[in-house]
Amino acid sequence: MLLIEEGLVRTFPRRGTFVSDITVDSLQHALEMRPRLEAIALEICCDKANDNELQHLANLVNDYEVVSSVDSHEFDFNVHSLIVRLAHNDYLYDAWIRVYTACSRLKYSSLSPIQDAQTMLTELREVVCHLQHRDVHAAKEAMEVHLRSFILGLGPIAASKEWLSGMK
């Protein structure tokens, strides 16, 4: 049921359950929503997260050392997930996890290499630093840079779309 909710599989009565197709529309929808959901999460996180929670987030990113690109993908998920969790809003998390899952699925199915791990780490450290200072504007700008790197890493189809030009 969770896979159905996340749009990863589709069930057809008397036919079976099948892995969902990745379509241009699903790519567009996920890439339109992800920056918006992340921005909302940053705003709410700045308001609701306490200093200890933000310190835990800072420790996570500052103590991390790049091991491999695959390991860095899990790290990226953990950081983004924690930021959204620190917004203390289950509805936001539910929406975000569906979009993040779609983006990750698109990334793994593309022919592009995984995003450069060291660049990803540097970008996330900047986001978290701004969060710790409760500078939501700077945190959102840093997150936009980070997400732009992700989108560009999806390859020429994603990079050529108009939603990328809508980002600063």
If you had to describe this structure to a student in words, what would you say it looks like?
- By secondary structure, the protein is mostly helical.
- It has one domain (24-165): GntR ligand-binding domain-like (Four Helix Bundle (Hemerythrin (Met), subunit A), Up-down Bundle).
- The protein has helices spanning 2-5, 24-48, 51-62, 69-85, 90-109, 117-132, 136-153, 156-160, 162-165, and strands at residues 9-12, 16-19.
- A two-stranded antiparallel sheet has the order 1-2.
- A hairpin with a 3-residue loop joins strand 1 and strand 2.
- Helix 2 (24-48) crosses helix 5 (90-109).
- The longest helix has 25 residues, at 24-48.
- The protein starts with a helix and ends with a helix.
Give the key terms:
single chain; mainly alpha; Four Helix Bundle (Hemerythrin (Met), subunit A); two-stranded antiparallel sheet; 9 helices; 72% helix
Q: What's the overall geometry?
A: globular
Q: Tally the structural domains.
A: 1
What is the overall number of helices? 9
Based on secondary structure, the structural category is: mainly alpha
CATH level 1 name: Mainly Alpha
Q: What pattern of helices and strands is seen along the backbone? A: HEEHHHHHHHH
Could you tell me the radius of gyration in angstroms? 16 Å
